UniProtKB/TrEMBL annotation:
UniProt GO cellular component terms: cytoplasm
Residues given in the record as ATP binding sites: R265, K266, E267, E352, V353, G354, S355
UniProt protein name: Serine--tRNA ligase
Domain Aminoacyl-transfer RNA synthetases class-II family profile: 143-412
Native species: Eubacterium cellulosolvens (strain ATCC 43171 / JCM 9499 / 6) (Cillobacterium cellulosolvens)
Record lineage: Bacteria, Bacillati, Bacillota, Clostridia, Eubacteriales
Cited NCBIfam families: serS (TIGR00414)
């Protein structure tokens, strides 16, 4: 959400930003907000004038009564009563106007960074850089669930009977590998100076509305029936919500946190051959990064955050690339965002395994997260988030890139302490057998 003062003073900039995001349907909202904002200020001025007049003539009543001018005092009382009736009507209209402004401001997109490439959707995202050499082995790499099945490591049929499509059971070495990757991700981020946090897995609607756009909420969030609670789609939601209505002393910034949580997502519209298995699911786990910082430091932190993910995957011998998200692929609150994609030897292409976002002061404005400077002045914090690792999707990249010709899986050195010292996983049956 942008500053209404900025919109009032720079309507053309806001409209141009809307066009860059290919959301022309929202263009009329800018002028509507300006008109409602003008009416709101007029209401406030009129209310203040009426209140001042009421206070002024109320003082006359006592004087007139003291002078024995009862009739004149009653006339003044009648005027006060009239004014008293006008004020609530103005206040009610003010509430309606405020709601109309908020309704529009919540969907007018944040101002994107000038460096963001202009494009309609994710097909126009721009590759930044590749890390590691993508390898296609001289044997056919099976689908990831087939690899898992060779270790008796997955049961999606039973999960379907228990919970429906989009769920899974992980078992044995595959389940252990899943947990090992998360544990390694936790320690990787702690070693980089981030504080480890386990947050609430449910949040109230006030936090939901503060951390994400309405479109995201509709496509992602599961509502708890009969409660003002939602299951989190990522721990970023509850992590940023932790600071709602807080005034943070400037000397405490930056706040750098890494959080573990399960994540729950509706995944509306997910379909296609690459969407089966555990690629796009309703429940997964993730190690996240969160930063709350000064506005002037947010771009530096943005660069550090996505680099952390690249370094993490490279430490596990998985080739990756970074992809700059174009304007049309940015959620409304984001200033700038990039995806980290891992190499898939089976598909012979990269696929998304993490996303890094700078949200500027949008979340802080909605949640009233302020910073008190050394001079006593208050300003809005900037917030950022990034995925460190999110299995089981990350397992797809890991299994494909560490699969050997005999069906075994090599365990990179950093992961071995979390796997009981194992250097390889040996399948119960070869996934490469036809």
């Amino acid at each position: 959400m942008i500053d209404i003062k900025f919109l009032r003073e720079n309507p053309d900039v806001v409209k141009e930003n809307i066009k860059k995001k290919f959301q022309d349907r929202k263009l009329p909202m800018v002028d509507e907000v300006i008109e409602f904002d003008k009416e709101r200020r007029e209401i406030l001025q009129k209310k203040e004038a009426l209140q001042a007049e009421k206070n002024k003539i109320s003082k006359e009543i006592g004087k007139l009564m003291g002078q024995g001018k009862k009739d004149e005092a009653n006339e003044v009382k009648a005027k006060v009563a009239e004014i008293s009736k006008e004020i609530p009507a103005l206040e009610e209209r003010g509430r309606v106007v405020d709601e109309e402004i908020k309704k529009r401001m919540m969907v007018i997109p944040n101002i994107i960074d000038p460096s963001v490439p202009i494009g309609k959707d994710d097909s126009e995202n721009v590759e930044i850089q590749k890390y590691g050499e993508p390898v296609v082995p001289d044997f056919e790499v099976p689908y990831h669930t087939e690899i898992m099945e060779s270790f008796d490591g997955i049961d999606m049929d039973a999960a379907g009977r228990v919970a429906g499509n989009g769920f899974y059971y992980l078992l044995g070495d595959i389940a252990r590998l899943h947990s090992a990757v998360l544990s390694y991700g936790r320690d990787f981020m702690i070693d980089r100076g981030f504080t480890y946090v386990i947050p609430p897995y449910m949040i109230r609607s006030a936090v939901v509305n503060g951390v994400m756009s309405f479109d995201e909420m509709d496509s992602m969030m599961y509502k708890i029936e009969g409660e003002d609670l939602y299951l989190i789609g990522t721990s970023e939601h509850s992590m940023i919500g932790r600071f709602i209505d807080e005034i943070i002393p400037e000397q405490k910034l930056p706040i750098t946190l890494t959080s573990y949580s399960p994540c729950f997502r509706k995944e509306k519209g997910a379909h296609g051959i690459e969407e089966r298995g555990v690629y796009r699911i309703h429940q997964f786990e993730k190690q996240e990064m969160i930063v709350v910082c000064k506005p002037e430091e947010s771009m530096d932190w943005y660069e550090k955050l996505w680099q952390n993910t690249v370094d993490f995957f490279r430490s596990l011998d998985v080739p990756v690339r970074t992809l700059e998200c174009c304007s049309g692929d940015l959620a409304d609150l984001k200033v700038k965002s990039c995806d980290v994609e891992a190499w898939s030897p089976r598909q012979k292409k990269y696929f998304e395994v993490g996303s890094c976002s700078n949200l500027g002061d949008a979340q802080a404005r909605r949640l009233k997260i302020r910073v008190q400077g050394e001079d006593g002045e208050k300003y809005l914090a900037n917030t950022l988030n990034n995925t460190c690792v999110a299995p089981p999707r990350m397992l797809i990249a890991f299994l494909e890139n560490n699969l050997n010709a005999d069906g075994t899986i090599s365990i990179p050195v950093p992961l071995r302490p979390y796997m009981g010292g194992k250097e390889k996983l040996v399948p119960r049956k070869s996934c490469l057998e036809k």
